[in-house]
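Protocol step 4 of 5: obtain the predicted structure for the target chain.
Materials: sequence only (see below). No template structures provided, no constraints applied. The aim of this step is simply to have a reference model before the mutagenesis design in step 5. Sequence pasted as it appears in the construct record:
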Amino acid sequence: MNIVTACAGIMLSLGTVQAFAQDSCANRGELDALYCDENRDLVADTPKDPKKLKNPSTLVFTYTPVEDPAVYENAFKPFTDYLSKCIAKRVVFYQVQSNAAEIEAMRSGRLHVGGFSTGPTNYAVNLAGAVPFAVKGTATELQGYQLIFVVKKDSPYQKLADLKGKKVAHVQPSSNSGNLAPRVLFPKEGLVPDKDYKVLYSGKHDQTVMGVLSGDFDGGPVASDVFKRMAERGQIKADDFRIIYRSQTFPTSSFAYAHDLEPKLRDTMLKCFYDYRFTPEMQKAFDGADRFYPITYKEHWAVVRHVAEGSGEKFNKAAFDNLQKAEAEAAAKKAQKK
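Step 4 output (structure tokens):
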């Protein structure tokens, strides 16, 4: 057999395997090729092959890096201690420094459950097999937030259109309130990102706020809940700022588990989440929320997907690679500035 024939045979075999993999999934939707969505709920199905299920001895948990990760490790400690006892397994908090790093951690199997920011939840679902199941809330409603645009109180800016040609900071490419929603909503207010001003990425919501305060930026869109928490912790004085725009309400960060968790462990863990009631300290840290409120990605993230589609955002691997590149460049610029 010559090398050409051998290569042809290998290629034919690979093609057959790939075709079989594709044929074995009746519906994939927007999900990556690693996942399947045969029940059409827009999230990855649990693997049918028992060998692909995971039952780790240590459960790894994290929360979206919208602010300093160490702050949230401390805030969630009462819960992670409880969860460890509830599922009879060790639970560790894994600090992540970016949305891309968090998504990649679940995609690679290093993260089992965690909170994802509103916008990046879409990437986590499509590319990491994340299955959103809760947001912070109360007995009667889920917790939401608004996109707000902040400027310094003593600045001359009174409306969005006043920021044409100014230094405006967005958060990250994948951020809902910090980038995607502004691209859809601001043009209606007379301000078009990347046309009326050059988009500058700060990296995090709190860094946009602090950048506006220091004068590095003239203004920027951030999540209202992050701004409120910064004021309550004494990091900023709300009176030093003026809010010149407020959007409709979006759901806050989702809590999602890896699609390939062993079903018995998954169901036990979900019951632990839903039964837990936040400590007074946690309620203070999370704007009065006292529990994990049940949600589904298909229903409760519809408004977020609508905004993303309106901005032209695609939550596929190519877009994720661009996200990683943009976040890396923003981090490098921040380090160089320091």
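Step 4 remarks: The chain has 13 helices and eleven strands. The two ends are 62 Å apart (CA to CA).
Proceed to step 5.
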